[in-house]
Design goal:
Layout lengths: L2 E7 L5 H12 L4 E6 L2 H8 L5 E3 H4 L11 H4 L6 H11 L8 H4 L5 H18 L2 E7 L4 H12 L3 E7 L5 E5 L25 H5 L3 H6 L2 E5 L6 H6 L5 H11 L9 E5 L18 E3 L4 H7 L2 E4 L4 H7 L3 E4 L10 E7 L2 E8 L4 H16 L1 E3 L4
Helix pairs in contact: 7-8
Length: 369
Amino acid sequence: MENIIVWIDSSIKLENKLIKLKEFLINQFGEVLFVSKDKSTAKFYQSKGFNIISIEENIDIFKEQDILKYDDFIPDEIDKEILNSIINFYSFKKNSLPNYVLREYLDSFSQLSILGRFWSFLIKKNNISHGLVLNGISINAFSLSLCLYQNKKNIMFWENGLIPSSLFINKSGVNAFSYIESHDNNNLLDENIYKVEEIIDLFSRDLSKKPSILITLQVNTDTNIKCFSPFFGVRDFVLFLNTEFEKKFYRNFDLFLRSHPKYNFDKRSYKFLAKKFIFSRLSFEEDIDRATLVITINSTTGLEAILNKKGLVSFGNSYYSKFLRFKYIIYMGYKIKVFIFNPNNNIDMNNRDKILSSLNENSLLINDN
């Protein structure tokens, strides 16, 4: 029977879903090996009956060999410039190796080589045929994916579900990396360049009744921002909106700014913000309820807006943007797409149905109570 390795990082908050995932995988595979970043997560899940080990407890022996063979770990068919870009992206993430390793091996290529040994050993020792890799271009996730690819194993990617009580699973990645079957998003072939206020004006009928705009921010190191949007980080996005919203067109709108719960939004670094921006202290459910329009880069809050039939303007690629209409604006001298969902538009509501159908096809439904 085939065996699977599952990378879960430090996902203790997903305890109930991971227990259900384990139960599901045990019925599909002979052996299910979970791997976490730290030993505290491994011990937590060991107490729940998981077959799990941690990088923290096992990585030491893989750094003690005489020489790190970088070329052996990098397949010839992978473009080196693309590889360098990936390494640059994951270097923005919090490093996932133990401190005692980092003090000795500061560069990403050495860390990648050490992890390559670790994953290759596990794949061979446990006769792994499949891998299920948690979302993100972290060095741990990328090195496991690379090892699985080198060893011609089956690879799938997962993250916490985009719909309630589910885990999202896709063969090429999550969020903007995900693969969907070809479809027609019914985009009107409009090559015109618009101003942002002209796009916002598409929602003027609803905004005139309830002039509330919710702006949702992401974690500053979010790969989806850096890879799939015109912005390098949260600050760039906020600066852009602050300049845009200085226009008289926006003076009658209530602008609520919502930080990501995992991002320490230091207001002292955003003293440039106009007074019209209000930092929300409500729950997300309360924020989405009072909003007529949601503006985001490519956060999953954009999907929440669609599911709740709220207006949406999104400035980056994502899973849901693959289904949406878009218009062009100019940002920093470049022509970029701005994705739109308008609940009053029949085409957009049809696209919403396609999103829900696709999500169901790529989700493992779990009762996490």
